[in-house]
Specification:
elongated; disordered C terminus; 760 residues; 22% helix; single chain; alpha+beta
């Protein structure tokens, strides 16, 4: 509560306040001690008021009637014989009503000096706890503390439902040293809309949404929304405890665990309504999406960006409210309940996070206080030519605090198990997608964005330290070295990197006629040249099935039999290849049309056997993968992989083995990418053990031709392709076959049952 001496209020001050021109308004309005007197002064500015009384909140007694000192609504009065400030209510008589207002100008600032210092220093990871709109109990009064960073603003006022969008009612307190503005308001309810009205140095006014808003209104209103009171009661303590046991170094156990990711855009996985126009809410996603992902055997669910985005067509990649889960699927607590249920069912949840750029929407971060606050002023540094968006100024301390706090917010408040960073390449290079005269070199004359590099290193170091067991993932499409190396070893410190090279090469191969694949054999084998230079995720994301690229099944030439057989073989190759796995929703049942964010996936396709066969194959691949350490335990080491035959380009056949730590834990994989059956095909074998066919994409249950190896495969002491043993097998057409030692036989159904039991 203010205890400073009251100013000498004169006509000029009253006139300035009435026209919104007085900057240090907290030094005038509210309650103050009168200089050299045992009395208090209460002043307020309430346009349209007819009468204002001061009510002691504790006794509910009237202690003064304020005098109208200015016709526009400036009131003030001395309260004699009272020198100790007290909480009071202004009882305001308007022409048609009487309203009790807990005067916000009677409260001191709630900002903590340490929090402010860390924010301005770039070392604040929880700025959302004091900026934005936060429920507080201040001197026994429940209310909302509003705070915003606008260092170059002349004045900032809060406008919204709580004050009928009046720019004069709630003018914020200015903190010149930090650039922050704040106010505590008691007369606020959850779900009220608000914005910050900012007066620029040139006298113009703009309205901005709250950068730290926890909820936002749909377009075109785009207002911020006061969050609900209280805290969500999480039930995933066991999951978090188990996650914390994983070490947070790049040699962590996570790299030795299975990771099969199902990428989802919640707005178009399924829809409801007569025309499919309505989104599923979180409860419906709990009821349908989670069981589906678990049944399909995925270990991770990755959500495309869910920070508030006004334009549906951006898919969330042009967010305006980075702290606000989109309104489209329900309240923030609904998202928490969704993640909570995922964890209780044994499913990890990753979030697609966008720190690389932000849109130019007028209510957003662009020119927030009339200056380039979050972005660079020079467009050669501050604008993305491809996306017509703005680039964060990673070298500015307060922007670092903003982004670090946002990452911390999603991991802490929503219990996400990791962040996938979008467009990391655009952050690393100053000349990203620019002509020679459209970029500025760094201080050493290079093209590396040194500030962004330093930010990424700090981000990964801090988040791994704060949340042991999470996964930080980079979508990085260049040959930048050390993306997943530790920062101590001069790397960026990510846990994983999307393998864009593998994706581009293999999809290029997939498009080729089988007759000509023999001339492009290297497109399947080249990935092993660099497979262990980073911690890779093999990604077939949404980017591969949009913008005219067609669905995966549409990329493959030939008739339907060839298309579906080839896709099954390709998925088998992918699941057998070193690296974690990611596919986009719909690919698991061979969606025929490329992804359309405005409608549901084509689930009706599952009425047809070819599509059902693809879905069953992916499901069985996932469960086999989780039950077979050889397919994941040494993903990051060359000792986990061995070519048995990589030179058979004439037949477009690949043979290789995958290994776990134990020598007897291995799998032999045979991939045939032509429609030709290979009878009596000799393959090299690494050990003198009897093998059997564990999985075959050509089996009838997957709608294949059912060319299978029914009998055990007996090794012969005949060296082949550099291996000490060999055997003759039948290689089905356009298929992938997994062979396992009989001693290490995998009971697939038992594993499915066991995984279901563990998830419960």
């Amino acid at each position: 509560m203010m205890t400073t001496n009251a100013p000498n209020i004169n006509a000029a001050i009253a006139e300035a306040i009435s026209h919104g021109q007085y900057i240090d308004i907290f030094s005038v309005l509210g309650m103050h001690r009168q200089a050299d007197s045992n009395a208090l002064v209460v002043s307020c500015f309430l346009p349209q008021a007819l009468n204002v009384d001061v009510i002691d909140l504790k006794t509910n007694r009237k202690v003064a009637s304020l005098e109208n000192l200015h016709p526009n609504g400036f009131y003030s009065a001395i309260i004699p014989r009272r020198k100790k400030p007290f909480i009071y209510v202004l009882r305001v008589t308007y022409p048609l009503s009487v309203e009790d207002i807990i005067d916000p100008y009677q409260f001191c600032s709630l900002l903590d000096d340490k929090d402010v210092y860390l924010f301005n220093e770039g070392n604040q990871f929880s700025a959302y706890q004091f900026q934005g709109a936060n429920w507080k109990n201040h001197q026994g009064i429940d209310g909302v503390h509003f705070c915003v960073w606008a260092p170059n603003a002349k004045q900032v006022s809060l406008v919204g439902d709580m004050n009928h969008w009046d720019t004069h009612r709630h003018i914020l307190r200015r903190h010149p040293a930090s650039g922050l503005w704040d106010i505590f308001i008691a007369d606020v309810e959850p779900h009220m809309h608000y914005k910050f009205n900012i007066e620029l140095t040139n006298g113009h006014r703009i309205e901005k949404s709250d950068p730290y808003a926890r909820m936002m209104q749909a377009a075109p209103g785009n207002a911020s929304v006061v969050p609900e009171k209280g805290h969500y009661q999480w039930q995933d303590q066991q999951w978090l405890s188990q996650r914390q046991h994983k070490r947070d170094t790049l040699a962590s156990q996570s790299h030795q665990q299975p990771m099969s990711i199902y990428e989802v855009q919640l707005a178009s996985w399924r829809r409801k309504g007569d025309s499919g126009q309505d989104y599923y809410d979180y409860q419906q996603l709990i009821d349908e999406l989670i069981p589906y992902v678990i049944e399909m055997g995925f270990t991770h669910l990755q959500l495309m960006p869910i920070s508030e985005y006004p334009f549906d067509g951006s898919w969330g990649y042009q967010p305006v409210g980075l702290f606000a889960p989109t309104y489209r699927f329900g309240q923030p607590n609904g998202l928490k309940a969704f993640i909570d249920e995922c964890h209780q069912q044994g499913l990890a949840v990753l979030l697609d996070w966008v720190p690389a750029h932000f849109p130019k929407d007028p209510h957003g971060l662009a020119h927030f206080d009339g200056t380039c606050l979050y972005e660079h002023a020079d467009p050669r540094l501050g604008e993305h030519p491809d996306w017509d968006t703005l680039i964060f100024n990673y070298g500015r301390a307060e922007v670092q605090s903003f982004l670090l706090s946002n990452a911390h917010y999603w991991l802490s408040e929503f219990h996400f198990d990791g962040l996938r960073l979008d467009a990391v390449s655009s952050m690393l290079y100053l000349d990203y997608s620019r002509a020679d005269d459209q970029w500025l070199p760094n201080e050493f004359g290079g093209r590396e964005n040194l500030a962004a590099i330093a930010f990424l290193k700090r981000l990964n170091t801090l988040m791994y330290a704060a949340f042991p067991g999470i996964d930080m993932i980079a979508e990085e499409s260049t040959a930048w070295g050390g993306v997943t190396q530790s920062t101590e070893h001069h790397g960026l410190g990510f846990g994983y990197k999307w393998n864009m090279g593998w994706m581009n090469d293999t999809l290029s191969y997939l498009r080729r006629d089988p007759l000509y694949r023999r001339y492009h054999h290297n497109e399947l084998t080249f990935g092993l040249v660099y497979a262990f230079t980073e911690q890779f995720i093999l990604s077939l994301s949404h980017d591969e099935v949009v913008h005219g690229k067609g669905a995966l099944i549409a990329k493959i030439p030939g008739d339907d039999w060839q298309k579906f057989a080839t896709l099954r073989a390709y998925f088998g190759f992918m699941w057998a290849h070193p690296g974690k796995k990611l596919i986009f929703m719909g690919s698991e049942f061979a969606q025929r049309n490329e992804w359309n964010h405005n409608q549901s996936l084509d689930w009706h396709l599952l009425e047809y056997l070819p599509h059902q066969g693809i879905q069953d194959w992916v499901r069985d691949l996932n469960h086999f993968y989780q039950a077979t350490p050889a397919l994941f335990a040494l993903d990051h080491q060359h000792t986990g992989f061995s070519w048995l035959d990589c030179h058979n380009d004439a037949n477009s056949v690949l043979v290789f083995a995958r290994f776990a730590q134990a020598v007897d834990q291995h799998v032999v994989v045979v991939v045939n990418m032509t429609p030709q059956v290979q009878h009596g095909f000799r393959i090299g074998l690494p050990h003198d053990v009897i093998y059997e066919e564990a999985l075959n994409s050509d089996k009838a249950c997957y709608n294949g031709a059912n060319v299978v190896n029914e009998n055990p495969i007996i090794p012969q002491e005949l060296a082949w392709q550099g291996q000490p043993f060999s055997a003759l097998i039948t290689v089905p057409p356009l298929a992938c076959v997994f062979l396992t030692p009989i001693e290490a036989k995998v009971d697939l159904q038992a594993d499915i049952d066991l995984s279901n039991d563990l998830s419960k």
